[in-house]
């Protein structure tokens, strides 16, 4: 096995990318690099891939990129249109739940050309994974530590006693990222870690009991009306009924839990943090590893996938000249584009969490006032602003805009234009 000082012969061709983590961000990046004809490998700690969680909402921002990857038709086969979100509050006497707000999402399709959708998370993840060549995905490989050197490359050590080498290392290994941990240790040793990044993730005082795939179809009917039905409970577990049963019937949260196989029930602690350091030398972070958001606005996985496309564009631009300088400038480009968007979405997720699930008296009041009196135009302007960001892979044929909101202008790939001109 190679040692860190001699571990890699720097690339004179496209760089070799090591992706750590086969979650939404890591797998999307792999699919993009595959299309860009860039060498990569994915290392995943799980011995078998089994996505946890029930439903996942995917906003239209990533759909043009999914279409470029040839995934849109398959996604259409598994999604349900996310038409509205209802929030229920306990009635003043504590006996029942009453509808406190309803947010409509139906206009997203007209604005962006794609609806906001909800899917089974395991199905969506399995679809993405099915497009990654099997020999590129290495399971049962928990990354324990990383080494990197400007001149020679990167090296990871995995729990099976092996080490693996490359030119670029991508930490797509989630909120408790080992790559981030190792990277920040190096930065701290070099006196380069900002103090804000030395602090741990902030765990918010909220827990969710997620149910997935309830077994009794009488309790949760298939969404014959095209609406998706998901359920999450904040805080206590009183036997209140919700209109989620068959033919508009009511069921309690207890019914949902009782009718869900034990192994599909997860209690999730929700953390949030926006890190300021996303790269150093040959290592870069994407997804929850650098921006962990509360799930209330459904933006975490969407941002992980948006990171993937912008990073893939930047890596593609490096071309055959993977010098430390070019790698740094690719990472800088990626960070400069993605950080403001991730920050805005993290803040929106914070606000949405408070609005939808805040438990104080003032949260309750704010919820009533905002949802009752907020003009529809304000919501539309929020959607318009958010949906304008629909970046695409710069090295694949562009997908036409089908919505009334034009996408933000995107930097063209010089390499793609050059190579296409030569091909023509
Ligand atoms: C309850 C809940 C609901 C949510 N709903 C939505 C939603 O509707 N829409 C949305 O956009 N987002 C949603 N999110 C957020 C979303 O799940 C995350 O933002 C997203 O999964 C992040 O993707 P990722 O690829 O960065 O990390 P992850 O999905 O966490 O993937 C990280 C991968 O890295 C692997 N790994 C970890 N450590 C190592 C290691 N040392 N070595 C090798 N592999 C390793 C893990 O096994 C995992 O496979 C929700 C989150 C929660 C908690």
Description:
With 424 residues, the chain is an alpha+beta fold. It has one domain: FAD/NAD(P)-binding domain (3-Layer(bba) Sandwich). It is 36% helix and 21% strand. The strands form 6 sheets. It has a 6-stranded mixed β-sheet with strand order 8-2-1-12-19-18, with helices on both faces. Helix 1 packs parallel to helix 9. The radius of gyration is 22 Å and the shape is globular. The N and C termini lie far apart (45 Å). Residues 1-6 and 205-237 have low confidence and may be disordered. The chain binds flavin-adenine dinucleotide (FAD). Flavin-adenine dinucleotide (FAD) binds next to helix 1, strand 3, strand 13 and helix 9.
Given the helix and strand composition, which structural class is it? alpha+beta
Distance between the termini: 45 Å
Which ligands accompany this protein?
flavin-adenine dinucleotide
Sequence stretches where pLDDT stays below 50 over 5 or more residues:
1-6, 205-237
Major sheet description: 6 strands, mixed
What gross morphology would you assign? globular
Mean pLDDT: 85
Total strand count, please?
20
Radius of gyration: 22 Å
Domain FAD-binding: 16-186, 263-323
Keywords: FAD, Flavoprotein, Oxidoreductase
InterPro entries: FAD-bd, FAD/NAD-bd_sf, FAD_mOase_fung
Family: Belongs to the paxM FAD-dependent monooxygenase family.
């Amino acid at each position: 096995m190679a040692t860190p000082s001699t571990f890699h012969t720097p690339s004179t061709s496209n760089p070799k990318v090591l992706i750590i983590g086969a979650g939404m961000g890591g797998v999307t990046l792999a699919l993009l690099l595959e299309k860009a004809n860039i060498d990569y490998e994915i290392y995943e700690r799980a011995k078998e891939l089994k996505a946890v969680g029930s439903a996942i909402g995917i906003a239209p921002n990533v759909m043009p990129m999914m279409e470029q990857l040839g995934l849109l038709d398959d996604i259409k086969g598994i999604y349900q249109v996310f038409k509205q979100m209802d929030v229920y509050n306990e009635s003043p006497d504590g006996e029942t739940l009453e509808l406190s707000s309803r947010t409509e999402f139906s206009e997203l399709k007209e604005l962006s050309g794609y609806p906001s959708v909800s899917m089974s998370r395991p199905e969506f993840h399995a679809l993405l994974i099915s497009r990654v060549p099997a020999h590129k995905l290495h399971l049962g490989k928990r990354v324990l530590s990383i080494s990197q050197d400007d001149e020679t490359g990167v090296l990871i050590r995995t729990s099976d006693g092996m080490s693996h080498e490359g030119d670029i290392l991508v930490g797509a290994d989630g909120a408790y990222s080992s790559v981030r941990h190792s990277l920040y240790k190096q930065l701290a040793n070099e006196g380069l870690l900002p103090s804000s990044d030395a602090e741990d993730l902030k765990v918010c005082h909220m827990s969710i009991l997620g149910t997935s795939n309830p077994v009794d179809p009488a309790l949760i009917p298939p969404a014959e009306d095209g609406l998706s039905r998901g359920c999450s409970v904040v805080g206590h577990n009183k036997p209140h009924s919700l209109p989620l049963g068959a033919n508009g019937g009511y069921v309690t949260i207890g019914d949902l839990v009782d009718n869900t196989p034990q192994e599909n029930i997860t209690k999730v602690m929700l953390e949030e943090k926006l890190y300021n350091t996303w790269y150093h030398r040959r290592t870069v972070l994407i997804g929850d590893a650098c921006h962990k958001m509360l799930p209330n606005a459904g933006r975490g996985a969407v941002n992980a996938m948006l990171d993937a496309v912008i990073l893939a564009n930047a890596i593609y631009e490096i071309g055959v000249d993977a010098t430390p300088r070019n790698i740094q400038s690719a990472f800088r480009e990626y960070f400069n584009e993605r950080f403001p968007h991730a920050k805005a979405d993290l803040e929106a997720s914070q606000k949405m969490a408070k609005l939808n699930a805040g438990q104080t008296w003032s949260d309750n009041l704010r919820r009533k006032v905002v949802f009752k009196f907020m003009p529809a135009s304000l919501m539309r302007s929020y959607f318009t602003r958010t949906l304008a960001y629909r970046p695409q892979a710069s090295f694949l044929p562009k997908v036409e805009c089908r919505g009334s909101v034009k996408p933000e202008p995107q930097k063209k790939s010089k390499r793609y234009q050059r190579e296409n001109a030569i091909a023509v």
